[in-house]
């Protein structure tokens, strides 16, 4: 069944018991508490965090101050339309994005002042790089080394896919050892698997350019970098562009600083992972791997609204790989689509071939067969969409 946007309501948080409602009512207040505890903020930050907490719980959306550096940009992104409304009534994608913008403002990230540019999520990201789980995953390339290159590539692709289970924001709900680290693991069945189509776009020895829009820092970014190293080393791509967020976002979304931290962690790991880290470090120096960012990556807008410069860049890529749940929502539209709505139709606007690698942690899903959807719903109810236990690889070539 195909749908148009007119048939698929925009997702909001106004329905009690829904996933968006739980994010706005539970996850965001919990995050404010975690950020408050992670730094020795002064009275001004504590007052601002208290005000944001009250606003999220019982108030309406307030705009940034009149001197905010990005006020005009947020007005272009719908601020005037949503100011004064309940957080639960506006589009969920917009409410989430604006919450993180307001949280950064509350802790002084945008300055001027001594806290300017201090990532409030950095302690969580750095801690994840030092976990036993991360150490175990960095040992995995040594076990893959004896395999043929094609098999290693498939394993690294799935590692990048399932690395999305390490989303720190998601863990606020799931908890360590919860759904985010449960059945979602390499080897678990995918609800859609177009990996063969992806590899067909990237034959070994080809001169292609891969654009990868990153999602999370930490373990997921390590897996992404190992996949990028494989693509460059075996000439599935002659050039890779890694897109990251321009500032901290959604707790664990990757920034340039997180890429540097991940590369340092790879280099010190030793073995095959360490060798990959050294190659990637050199690849950046030679321009084979570029890191780029753009304000649009923190916009509360679908990719259908891509600005002209990004549209031109993605149009030149052999394939653009879109990582993670948030990017998927922006790629197909954050609406209540029927799961059988064709992925190719929802991404027809994209300026070049596009692939989505995503662990399912929100309501949005398209491109599934009717039997697959029926079986998933019969076994898991609605939870298969939001629990982080299922994943997909979808390609429009």
UniProtKB/TrEMBL annotation:
What are its GO biological-process terms? DNA damage response
For this UniProt entry, the molecular function terms from Gene Ontology, in alphabetical order, are:
metal ion binding; phosphatase activity
Q: Which reaction does it catalyse?
A: beta-D-fructose 6-phosphate = dihydroxyacetone + D-glyceraldehyde 3-phosphate; beta-D-fructose 1-phosphate + H2O = D-fructose + phosphate
Instruction: Report the coiled-coil segments.
Output: none
User: What does the UniProt keyword field contain?
Assistant: Hydrolase, Manganese, Metal-binding
Does Hydrolase count among this protein's keywords?
yes
Q: Which residues form the Damage-control phosphatase ARMT1-like metal-binding domain?
A: 24-370
What protein is this chain from? Damage-control phosphatase ARMT1-like metal-binding domain-containing protein
Q: Which family does it belong to?
A: Belongs to the damage-control phosphatase family. Sugar phosphate phosphatase III subfamily.
Q: Does the keyword Hydrolase apply?
A: yes
Q: Which domain of life is it from?
A: Bacteria
Its needed co-factors are:
Mn(2+)
Gene3D superfamilies of this UniProt entry?
Answer: Uncharacterised protein PF01937, DUF89, domain 3
Q: Which InterPro entries match?
A: ARMT-1-like_metal-bd_sf, ARMT1, ARMT1-like_metal-bd
Q: Which organism is it from?
A: Streptomyces carminius
């Amino acid at each position: 069944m195909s749908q148009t946007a007119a048939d698929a309501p925009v997702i909001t948080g106004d329905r009690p018991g829904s996933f968006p409602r739980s994010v706005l009512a539970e996850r965001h207040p919990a995050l404010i508490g975690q950020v408050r505890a992670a730094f020795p903020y002064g009275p001004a930050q504590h007052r601002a965090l208290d005000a944001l907490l009250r606003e999220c719980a019982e108030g309406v959306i307030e705009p940034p101050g009149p001197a905010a550096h990005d006020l005009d940009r947020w007005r272009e992104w719908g601020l005037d339309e949503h100011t004064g409304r309940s957080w639960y009534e506006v589009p969920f994608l917009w409410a989430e994005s604006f919450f993180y913008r307001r949280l950064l403002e509350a802790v002084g990230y945008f300055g001027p002042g001594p806290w300017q540019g201090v990532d409030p999520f950095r302690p969580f990201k750095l801690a994840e790089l030092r976990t036993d789980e991360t150490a175990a995953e960095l040992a995995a390339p040594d076990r893959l080394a004896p395999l043929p290159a094609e098999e290693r590539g498939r394993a690294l692709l799935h590692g990048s896919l399932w690395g999305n289970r390490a989303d720190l924001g998601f863990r606020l709900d799931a908890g360590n050892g919860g759904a985010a680290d449960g059945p979602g693991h390499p080897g678990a069945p995918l609800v859609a698997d177009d990996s063969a189509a992806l590899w067909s776009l990237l034959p070994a020895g080809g001169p292609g350019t891969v654009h990868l829009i990153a999602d999370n820092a930490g373990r997921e970014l390590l897996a992404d970098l190992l996949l990028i190293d494989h693509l460059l080393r075996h000439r599935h791509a002659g050039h890779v562009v890694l897109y990251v967020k321009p500032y901290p976002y959604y707790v664990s979304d990757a920034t340039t600083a997180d890429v540097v931290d991940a590369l340092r962690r790879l280099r010190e790991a030793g073995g095959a992972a360490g060798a990959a880290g050294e190659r990637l470090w050199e690849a950046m120096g030679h321009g084979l791997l570029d890191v780029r960012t753009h304000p649009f990556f923190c916009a509360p807008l679908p990719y259908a609204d891509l600005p002209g410069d990004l549209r031109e860049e993605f149009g030149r890529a052999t394939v653009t790989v879109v990582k993670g749940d948030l990017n998927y929502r922006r790629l197909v539209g954050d609406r209540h689509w029927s799961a059988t709505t064709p992925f190719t139709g929802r991404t027809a606007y994209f300026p070049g071939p596009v692939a989505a690698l995503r662990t399912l942690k929100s309501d949005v899903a398209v491109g599934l067969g009717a039997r697959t959807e029926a079986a998933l719903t019969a076994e898991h109810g609605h939870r298969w969409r939001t629990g982080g236990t299922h994943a997909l690889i979808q390609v429009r070539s």
